[in-house]
UniProtKB/TrEMBL annotation:
Gene3D superfamilies: 1.10.238.260, 3.30.160.270, Aldolase class I
Protein's name according to its UniProt entry: Citramalate synthase
Provenance organism: Candidatus Terasakiella magnetica
Coiled coil: none
Pathway: Amino-acid biosynthesis; L-isoleucine biosynthesis; 2-oxobutanoate from pyruvate: step 1/3
Matching Pfam families: HCS_D2, HMGL-like, LeuA_dimer
């Protein structure tokens, strides 16, 4: 029995996503991503175009074992003037042994005339022959009607004739492609509405590109009109402006439109993980503002918002963040009110009476520090240390007496090679004990970090695992040129799954870096429950 409410998801990350500028998957990347898609519950995983490049050949030579997803191979209709069983492209697809083959074919008369330069009747024959051939050899055939919407606008009879030829030749799905990505949602609705009079929605798919920023809206519009397959990519990867983003489509379909997919409600909670795994593989920073899965998708900054969120999160959240595996974050900044502070205290485990006079004093202090250039929006660890120092106490693990940095660049005699060296001397008190040490580094901050560690690790071995994962410098008042105030944000990790961010600010970049480094070291010690040596 067919279920009208079931929408099938077809992922093209490994094929259309591989057409993204700057993306170059290895066969191993493709296998890992296919396995993640399968685990998520995606129905079809398009592995690539066998015969187009060695990576795709390797992938199909050793395809991943998928539990529920169907692996498909992509290619094009036969070449003009050949029979389907004599077309090397189609044989290559069939020889992969996959059970589903997706063929792209022209459905815009202009493309047939200009790009293929063949008779329109030959294009229709190429579609019908090729679909019948791969269905016979593989089992399931799909037709991607390239430029369908532009084609329909130019010549609806011809665009439909191409699709009907594929359907009548046995294609399970006829996928209408907005190849140039220029179609708007109202046009999609109107055209899809017409197509469903000829081909049932249960056999129709949609494939949108994001050139007007409407790929997700267009895909959902098509589903509203009866289409039951959506093609897209993870994080909207794809040529030019990208493809329809399945990561945004999935929760909208399931949580808002009430459709069923191959992804379970529990599976939907892996959405953030899947999205970030792809970014990691591509060595890309995740988009903070990505719908549903971005780090800022449920981050609340304005005081008015946080005060209402505290009463009921749905005041400023369209869905529960946990439903997609995300989490709510309260941001501390100069936009904050008392509610932000109280919520943040709870987040870090500080039990404070909201009416305590210290809360207002701390809020004023934060606003003052922010106006001088600090930013606690994103520097949670520095915020926590500031709050704890203000409300209770943080042990004095060490006290800086001074540091001195020597930075040297020496060119060889022919001025062909520069030798760059930095050296830092640090003098610290740990309890009553004064300790001095020197370290070298490839830059002044690196040398400062090394000297601090040289002194601190023998006393506090917990710091051994601490390492810096990101270092960001921002000039705050560019008009002051080299005298500008600098803000440094440091992200640290300890190899045990913990990461934290600290901030420092000064007109001297090394001093700002010291502040951020110092907070990072202290935060690690504090969170590890370490007691201060030789003192309080
Ligand atoms: C809308 C889309 O995203 S479709 C997918 C686009 N993706 C890619 O193109 C990536 C993979 N492609 C490739 O590696 C190569 O283009 C290949 C291996 C497929 C073909 O390479 P080549 O044989 O060197 O041809 P080339 O790429 O220069 O041109 C494409 C040829 O296919 C023909 N063609 C285009 N679409 C179709 C079609 N649907 N059916 C039959 N032939 C077609 C073109 O007319 C052209 O023919 P010609 O060689 O006689 O000029
Ligand atoms: C098939 C395809 O990728 C497109 O038409 O956009």
């Amino acid at each position: 029995m067919t279920n009208d409410n079931r929408v099938y998801l077809y992922d093209s990350t490994l094929r259309d996503g591989a057409q993204t500028q700057g993306v170059d998957f290895s066969a191993a990347d493709k296998v890992a991503i296919a396995i993640e898609l399968d685990r998520l519950g995606i129905d079809y995983v398009e592995g690539g175009w066998p015969g187009a490049n060695p990576t795709d050949d390797d992938f199909f030579a050793n395809p991943p074992k998928l539990e529920t997803a169907v692996l498909s191979a992509f290619g094009m209709t036969r070449r003009p003037g050949r029979s389907a069983d004599n077309d090397p492209g189609l044989s290559g697809l069939v020889n992969t042994g996959v059970k589903t083959i997706t063929l792209v074919g022209k459905s815009w008369d202009f493309q047939v005339d200009v790009a293929l330069e063949i008779e329109r009747s030959e294009n229709v024959a190429m579609i019908a022959d090729s679909i019948a051939y791969v269905k016979d050899k593989a089992g399931e055939a799909m037709f991607d009607a390239e430029h369908f919407f532009d084609g329909y606008k130019a010549n609806p009879e011809f665009a439909l004739e191409c699709c009907k030829a594929a359907y009548e030749a046995g294609a399970r799905w006829i996928v209408m492609c907005d190849t140039n990505g220029g179609t708007l949602p109202d046009e999609i609705e109107a055209i899809v509405g017409e197509v469903t009079k000829h081909i049932p929605g249960s056999h129709l798919g949609i494939h949108c590109h994001d050139d007007t920023g409407n790929a997700v809206a267009n895909s959902l519009a098509a589903v509203r009109m009866g289409v039951r397959q959506i093609q897209g990519t993870l994080n909207g990867l794809g040529e030019r402006c990208g493809n329809a983003n399945l990561i945004s489509i999935l929760p909208s379909l399931m949580l808002k439109m009430g459709f069923e997919t191959g992804v379970s409600k529990e599976g939907l909670k892996r959405l953030v993980t899947v999205s970030r795994l792809l970014d990691e593989r591509l060595n890309r920073a995740p988009a903070r503002n990505a719908a549903y899965v971005g780090e800022s998708a449920f981050a609340h900054k304005g005081g008015l918002h946080v005060s209402a969120i505290e009463k009921d999160p749905s005041c400023y959240e369209h869905v529960n963040p946990e439903s997609v595996g995300n989490k709510r974050t309260i941001i501390m900044s100069n936009q904050a009110g008392r509610s932000n502070l109280v919520a943040k205290f709870r987040e870090v485990g500080l039990d404070v009476d909201p009416k305590d006079a210290k809360v207002n004093v701390l809020l004023d202090k934060i606003k003052e520090l922010e106006s001088s250039g600090y930013s606690y929006d994103g520097a949670d660890a520095s915020f926590e240390l500031l709050a704890r120092r203000h409300l209770e106490a943080v042990p004095e693990y060490f006290r800086l007496e001074s540091f001195r940095v020597i930075d040297e660049r020496v060119w060889d005699k022919r001025h062909a090679h520069v030798n760059q060296m930095s050296e830092t001397t640090v003098k610290l008190f740990i309890g009553d004990k004064r300790i001095m040490d020197v370290a070298e580094g490839n830059g002044p901050v690196n040398a400062l970090d090394a000297a601090l560690r040289k002194i601190l690790i023998p006393v506090y071995p917990d710091l051994e695992s601490l390492h810096l994962v990101d270092f960001k410098v921002r000039i705050l008042d560019g008009d002051q040129a080299t005298g500008a105030i600098t803000r440094v944000m440091i992200e640290s990790a300890d190899g045990q799954g913990n990461t934290w961010t600290t901030v420092g600010m000064s007109s001297n970049i090394i001093d700002a870096s010291y502040e951020a480094l110092r907070d990072s070291l202290i935060y690690k010690l504090y969170k590890s429950g370490v007691k201060a040596h030789g003192g309080n």
